[in-house]
Amino acid sequence: MTDGESPIRVLLVDDSDVYRDSLVFLLSTRAGLDVVDAVRDGTAAIRAVQAHSPDVVVLDYRLPDIDGGAVAAEIDVAVVFLSASAGRAEYDAASSAGASLVRKDEGIDALVRAVRAAAGR
Question: How crowded is residue 5: how many other Cβ atoms within 10 Å of its Cβ?
Answer without folding.
Answer: 9
